[in-house]
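Appendix B. Chain record.
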Amino acid sequence: METKTVRPALSESYERCCHEAGISAFYLDLHHRRLETSKGLRKPRLERAIGVIYRPETERASHYFQAVLPDQFNEYIWFDETKAITPFATKELEEMPDTYPFGL
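Structure tokens predicted for this chain:
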């Protein structure tokens, strides 16, 4: 396991807008698209997606895409700061396949 530090969000991204709001965590109801709160989110912006692989050296090309949040999500939850999880302690069960409980 490797814990990485993620670069600050690009200036033209939703992530940067949320960070600059200065609120550590919030919830947006985007389901009601006619609400005033969603009108400001109708401008296409970059959205960052980081999964199992994070490549900071190619971040713009490999992790960002154009998005319009109200068209993509019904709700949006923002946390300005998160931490990596730590795995649970595990042990091998005798006479069980190494993929237990997920093995077929």
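Further analysis of this model is presented in Appendix C.
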